[in-house]
Structure formats: C-alpha cells, structure tokens
Specification:
This protein has about 90 residues and is α/β, with parallel strands linked by helices. The chain is built from three helices and three strands; from the N terminus they run αβαβαβ.
C-alpha cells in the first residue's frame, strides 16, 4: 500500500478541536495555557460564544501580541483576556 492510499490520520490539533467542539458550549469558560500564534485561542473564543470567556497565557510578549491581533481581526477580542505570564503561577 502506497503512502497516498493509506487513510490519513487526523493531526493532534484537529483531534483536540473536534473533542473540544463536542464539549464546549456557549457561555463556557476556556483556558488557553500557551496562546502561541493565536489559532487555538480564536477557536476557543468562537466555541464559547459571546456569553463565554477565554483566558489565555503565554510567557512571550510577541505571542500575546500576535494573538491579540488575530482576535481583533476575527472580532473576538471582547471575549478573551490575555496574560503575559506563565500559566503555572
């Protein structure tokens, strides 16, 4: 069986998003412990809806700024609180 004919396994991120989408509801609170580039933070903000909230952390200021910009472009800034600090504190 060639590589192209093997069934494609979902990537870890896709699997995590699918599992979270099944469980998160509008109005929920979600935590993004390492916001990184902001893609997952946007996903979480969409999943919790206008009544929900996401709290995001990253130790890198550049990651927080990138995430803030991505959220602004998506019109989701009002439901996310970002912190430049370690999530383990």
């Amino acid at each position: 069986m060639s590589d192209s004919s093997k069934p494609r396994l979902p990537r870890a991120t896709e699997m995590a998003h699918r599992l979270l989408a099944e469980r998160l509801r509008p109005g929920d609170l979600a935590i993004d412990a390492t916001v990184g580039n902001g893609h997952d933070t946007v996903f979480l903000a969409e999943a919790v809806g206008q009544a929900g909230q996401v709290i995001g952390f990253d130790i890198q200021p550049i990651a927080i700024e990138a995430t803030r910009h991505r959220l602004s472009e998506a019109g989701l800034s009002d439901r996310v609180e970002l912190h430049t600090e370690c999530h383990s504190r």
